[in-house]
Amino acid sequence: MGHSHSHDGDDSTLTRPELRRRKAVRRRAVVLLSWILVPLGLLTVVAMMMLWPGGGDGAPLAGNPYSAAPGASIDTGTVQRTATEDCPGSAGGPGASCFIAHTAVAGLADVPVVVSPDVVQARGVRVGDKISYLNLSGLVAVTGVQQEGPQYVFMDFVRTLPMGLLALLYAVVVIAVARWRGLRAIVGLGGAFAVLSWFILPALAEGKSPLLVALVGSSAIMFGVLYFAHGFSARTSTALLGTLFGLGVTAGVAFWAVDAAALTGTSGHNSYQLLNLTQGMSLSGMILCGLVISGLGVLNDVTITQSSAVWELYELAPHTSARELFTAAMRIGRDHIASTVYTIAFAYAGSALPVLLMVSLYDQPLIQALTGVELAEEVVRILVGSIGLVLAIPVTTAVAVAVVKSTGRGAAGARPVAEPVDTKVIAC
């Protein structure tokens, strides 16, 4: 199913009176929506200022997890050859064998890096790979004690080049297809991550209200992303209003679901480390914030598409009644609901595939598996996001219909631009 995200329509074939009528309708719609969205925008800015992370004593501090102790260092190099050899020192016990990646580093011709068995089994280390490793050869100079075991230990792969190329390919494809609008969307995405990095995450770490942080941060992201990517127009404003409604519904349902389903956030391997690094942060509150943020992308997609559908239908047949217009647009909306609901489910299933595989290997009833600690959070995420998404579509459609009908009544010279649309046959 194709999604039409056009916000300007095709005005090239219209006569001057018809073009003036369209512009008059759009101006009236913008003014009408501004009375609602401007106060909401100001409220978002004020709330963001009040919740902004204060830093200083309130900001949790943690060292660099990739820093090394005095005398040790973290180095990088390129693998020249690999072999299974006797473990250096006493690693693995007498006669044990280790997988060694002989690595070339500037100033050192051959560094024997010991690779852990789980990495070898999962993917292995190959010739030409760039890796980072822990260099313990300098510890003896600091401690005066000869280091037993391996001197060089594998830490991770260096992924900068392939991930950079993938990001570049993504940007080229988006800009080549969507042109300036694609470029604006990418810049808007960067702004969204800036809000996430500089406001949402630090505010959560300082113990601010997760519900308020999620609502305010998500609203700020949507104001910026929608207007920057799609421009200031009545269609964008209508979609934004529907998106904000969907956010409110998602936040309310998530607030109830996290408590009712007893989602504690302690099942992950980073949970206790987060508790130690932060001051009073609620792990269940972190889940609540995540439930709200995770649905932003799909919610924005369906509301912007639904708003465009209403405007296109209206401009094709401006004399269609509000009820007929709403019914026709909801035919498209129901297709969006059907497609995006399983889109959300498959997206979360893909991200949680290792957990799903592990749970499938357990000998337990299906209902117990779905409600157990391993999957409960993902299931709740799917249900909460889908509820907000589904309810946002009829609300966005109703707002768009109300706006176009109320602003179009007084348009000068209003007359059908085309033959009245048959609301029984709507192509999406």
UniProtKB/TrEMBL annotation:
This protein's UniProt keywords: Membrane, Transmembrane, Transmembrane helix
Transmembrane segments: 29-52, 160-178, 185-205, 211-232, 239-258, 278-299, 340-362, 382-404
Keyword Transmembrane helix: yes
Keyword Membrane listed: yes
Record-linked Pfam families: YibE_F
InterPro entries in UniProt: YibE_F (IPR012507)
Protein name: YibE/F family protein
Organism expressing this protein natively: Arthrobacter alpinus
